[in-house]
Design a protein that fits this description.
single chain, 97 residues, alpha+beta, Alpha-Beta Plaits, four-stranded antiparallel β-sheet, 30% helix, 27% strand, globular
Length: 97
C-alpha cells in the first residue's frame, strides 16, 4: 500500500551557480518552484525523502543550506499572499517519481 503524499516547502541557499541550477532541476521532478530558491514538493514516503536528500547533498558545499518544512493540509489551505489570495496547489502536487 502506498503512503499518502506528504508536502514540504524546500528552501535553499547555495553559493555555487552550477550546484544551485542542478538542485533546482532535481527539485522540479518533485514539485513546483514558488520562489527562486523555494519549492513546494510532494513526497510519497520517507524512503523517497531520504533518496532526495542524499542526491541533493551532492550539490551542497560547506556553508550552503537546504531546509525541508513539512506542510500539512490545514497549513497549505490557509497559506496566502499579501493580497489574501490562496497560494497552495490543490488537490496536490503531481508526482513524477
Amino acid at each position: 500500500m502506498e503512503d499518502a503524499l506528504k508536502h514540504y516547502l524546500v528552501c535553499y541557499d547555495i553559493s555555487d551557480n552550477k550546484n544551485r541550477l542542478k538542485l533546482s532541476k532535481l527539485l522540479r521532478f518533485y514539485g513546483v518552484r514558488v520562489q527562486k530558491s523555494v519549492f513546494e514538493i510532494g513526497i510519497r514516503n520517507n524512503n523517497q525523502l531520504e533518496q532526495l536528500k542524499n542526491r541533493a547533498k551532492n550539490y551542497l558545499e560547506e556553508f550552503d543550506s537546504l531546509l525541508f518544512y513539512r506542510l500539512n493540509h490545514a497549513s497549505r489551505q490557509s497559506s496566502h499572499d499579501c493580497n489574501n489570495q490562496r497560494i497552495a496547489y490543490f488537490p496536490s502536487i503531481i508526482q513524477i517519481h
